[in-house]
């Protein structure tokens, strides 16, 4: 479950400027693909089409052989989890932030997801910048900790498809190492689309697509692309 197909996808935000110019790729269920390329290449646009924030201008996006235009936006979005680089937290407890997306989850399930993402120590606290009714100040979370809140949320939601956005801002290498285990755990056996700037950060993806100006310039495994130089 969660097989993604982009079939000759073309897209433009404005009539005159094509952004994606015939994108073809397939991600088998449970496998991962990394979309790598410079800023402006169209990487985020690919994830927005998958989410159905926009519809394609030509071609089709399919999930499990179903054109995403033939299912409701809600069901498309509920099938996809997103771990952005910069996680913005709501003005409520970390536990609330983890539960967001699956309000029916039990306290035990929330705790278990927090434990897997290694943030269980402070789930009853508010995030930084907020203050509780009794005056307790919010907890200052590092970028990596915020990202682990998003990871815990995704573990709890357990969607078949996961988007990891590593392109929006660079985490320092220490933080990257810190969250790698949690990321590996959440992407395991789940169809995963990684958005990244650099080839060096997506060594473990099953397939890498190099996007340039809305076209696929190269594709292959990390080893194959490294051998080409
Ligand atoms: P990337 O994620 O690779 O940096 P994007 O998919 O965000 O690239 O953007 C691809 C191109 O589409 C860029 O030229 C960008 O300026 C343009 N673009 C992105 N979003 C919009 C929008 N909402 N309206 C018009 N153009 C947009
Ligand atoms: P940008 O900062 O490049 O303009 P956006 O803020 O539109 O991009 O979105 C950043 C990423 O987060 C995109 O890849 C988009 O698919 C995803 N995204 C945006 N809004 C939501 C949302 N409400 N739920 C889940 N993912 C979202």
UniProtKB/TrEMBL annotation:
Q: What is this protein called?
A: ABC transporter ATP-binding protein/permease
Q: Which superkingdom?
A: Bacteria
UniProt subcellular location: Cell membrane
Similarity comment: family membership: Belongs to the ABC transporter superfamily.
- The chain positions of domain ABC transporter read 4-229
């Amino acid at each position: 479950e969660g097989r993604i197909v982009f079939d000759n996808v073309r897209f433009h935000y404005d009539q005159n400027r094509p952004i994606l110019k015939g994108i073809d790729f397939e991600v088998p269920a449970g496998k991962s693909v990394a979309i790598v390329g410079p800023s402006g290449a169209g990487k985020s646009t690919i994830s927005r089409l998958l989410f159905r924030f926009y519809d394609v201008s030509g071609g089709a996006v399919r999930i499990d052989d179903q054109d995403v235009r033939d299912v409701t936006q809600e069901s498309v979005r509920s099938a996809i989890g997103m771990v952005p680089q910069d996680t913005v937290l709501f003005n409520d407890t970390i536990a609330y932030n983890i539960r967001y997306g699956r309000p029916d989850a039990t306290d035990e399930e929330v705790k278990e997801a927090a434990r897997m993402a290694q943030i269980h120590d402070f789930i009853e606290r508010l995030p930084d910048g907020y203050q509780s009714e009794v005056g307790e100040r919010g907890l200052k979370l590092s970028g990596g900790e915020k990202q682990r809140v998003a990871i815990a949320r995704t573990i709890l939601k357990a969607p078949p498809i996961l988007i990891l956005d590593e392109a929006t801002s660079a985490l320092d290498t220490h933080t990257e190492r810190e969250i790698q285990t949690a990321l590996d755990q959440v992407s395991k056996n789940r169809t995963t689309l990684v958005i990244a700037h650099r080839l060096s950060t997506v060594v473990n993806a099953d397939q890498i697509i190099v996007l340039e100006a809305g076209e696929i310039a190269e594709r292959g495994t990390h080893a194959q692309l490294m051998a080409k130089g």
